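Q: Can someone sanity-check these two? First one:
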Amino acid sequence: MFLYNLRLALLSLKRDPILTALMIGAVAIGIGMSTTTLAVFHSMSGNPIPDKSDRLYAVQLDNWSPNAAYDEPNEPPTQVTYRDGQALMKAAKAPHQNLSFTSALVLQSDKPDAKPDLVVARVTYNDFFSMFEVPFEYGGPWSKEADQNAEQVAVLNQEQNEKLFGGANSVGKEIVLNNRRFRVVGVLKKWAPVPKFYDLENDQFGDPEDVFVPFNLVSSMQLHINGNNSCWGPPADNSFEGHLNSECVWLQYWVELPTTADRDAYHDFLDGYVNEQKKLGRFQRPLNNHLRDVTDWLTYNHVVSKDSKALVGLSFMFLAVCMLNTIGLILAKFLRRSGEIGLRRAVGASKMALFRQYLVETGVIGVSGGLLGVLLGWGGLAGVRHLISDSGHIARLDWSMVGLSLLLALASSMLAGLYPAWRVVRIPPAIYLKVQ
């Protein structure tokens, strides 16, 4: 029966090509708009590390000025100082902990005609790779001994390995960073968490770093931060060491705590650490330490802004307007076929049989409009990527969004067809036959 109704629907749509094109076009425009905004919202609001999001915690310590909060109402900084980060890493009270920041390094290839290139580096500990489930194409992370000895080793991302070594296994080869030779120990697979949850201070939706190097090289290489650096007071002096010993916050500190008991114990440890620092004249504000898991961290940092949510709402309102127009077009089309309806009713066709036939017809309109809408949405996302260069990770259309768009188109068109189909089949057939 479905195939019979489908054949009737296709014949009906072919009889009024202009009206059919208008209906499909109205559905497609609404779906295209909704798909574009929904795809961006879906990427921004996704869980970047679902397997561990409830075990990874961003650490906040309130070392800020006694006269004003870092952020109202009474919120502590979102990053930590160098000396606090180092002290917490040395204490090693969590099963896994990591301290990191972004820096800019000059990379010099051994190729004779290659010019020096400025690359973005993440300066970190080896726990970074296991904590954040970073995948490797070749090799792996450097060892804990490399961390302790500040060895000049590096991990490359896939793009840098492609540029420098043509994508081949480069483990054991050397690169030059800031005029120092580094041994490559690993090459990442394609990896781009969205959002970049481990560092929301710097380019939340940007690409991961080009190269990764051990944190303990900070002092010997005087690695400067290439990102957010907030201070509530000037350093004791303008030297590099003065900056390291200042109250400036510029490091992202994360811990992995498997259980609630581990989290509570670590929070107690943080309180104890801050109380000890208070005796040294630091941390003059009341205790205000926080541990926020990945989901809470994204919410706390307003990764998905209210503007984005409002834009999704507006796009669905636009879809509703398109569907109202489609209802009018479908109703006009069905009423134009009143003679055919009356004849079929007179020869015994039931209301339900006609109702199902017209719903199949609106379903064909919905699927056709949905397919065209997905193409429009794909074009819209390409436009977003063209206008906003850093939107590559969020302006993308995956298969789940394609399926959702088609389902939305089908459901919307079926809802739009309910009233016209119900209206037409309720009219007594005698009226049609009298007109004939």
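And here is the second, same format, sequence then tokens:
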Amino acid sequence: MGEIYLDNSSTTMVCREAADKVMEMMTDNYGNPSSLHTKGFYAEQELSAARQEIADLLGVLQEEIYFTSGGTESNNLAVFGAAHAMRRRGNHIVTTMIEHPSVLNTMKQLEKEGFAVTYLKPDGSGKIRPEQVFRAVTPHTVLVSMMCVNNEVGTFLPLEAVPAAIAAAKAPALFHVDAVQAFGKIPLKPGRLKIDLMSVSAHKIHGPKGVGALYLRKGVHIVPRAYGGGQEKNIRPGTESAPLIAGFGAAVRALPEPGAQLEAMARLSSYCRRRLLEIDGVTLNSPEDALPYIVNLSAGGVRAETMLHYLSAKEIYVSSGSACSKGKASHVLTAMGLPRDRIASSLRLSFSRYNTREDVDELADALREGLSSLTKKP
């Protein structure tokens, strides 16, 4: 059996459709989208097509999609941009303790600038309750930033509560959602959820790395982070990476029907959970109602890095948590209040449409062998 890749929340294999489109754009259709000649026009057409693909998937207007270099830049642009645009109306922000570092580190910087940030703490299963959101939002709140799906344990956050909490507090707040782990995997309509800004990324859905997008609701004003030649309507200036953007669009076009894919993933996740729980020493950290693409577990006191390398030697690739927190104890599991040994031995399995039950069987067998050989005997 060949390699088994179960680290798709870190990044996915680029699908053939996206890779072919990137190659075409780099070798044939390589014009600058801002150029006025035909070569530029053709490149601009590809940008428009990709923008439309993403807009259609989200049920929004094409003009509400702005391309960035990825999820981190989208989150930075959204959080800084919204906070700075709204600071005359208040200085309070609400977020959670389990956000991606691209949001948490941005919050730390905003605190240095005088903003007051409330961090919502999850319970032991990684969930934030709606009533916590209602208690946190005040008339001085100018921004609520909350991820849609946690990237380490797969829990859904209570997005529906945010607009209601903002309305109840009569706050001027904008609502930003980091949807990097949810985009292309679950139905997600910013208009229905009254979201003002939303971050997405290409390389989590079999698109190329280095490209993402920010949904910015028409009429919402944010302060840009860079200034330049007017591309992306001055929100994110600089020559667009047309090959990556076109590849992003191709990856969106290649997405399977969302409902059927989610059902298939739920069956695979359920099977995986059963196989894992048959192994002595394995504890699941993801709740049963988590996004089925992600299963977080702790492996019997064996340090995650040790088990990760053991599995890697067998060409089975998993993660010890977020790839962006390499080498650090999980801030998500720590916020959940899990014991240290469980945090230190945590592994994240994350699936894509290319994974099978046979992959899960190989992983489960290797994990059992690893626990047997790596656990110290008395």
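A (reply): Looked at the second one. The mean pLDDT is 95. The radius of gyration is 21 Å.
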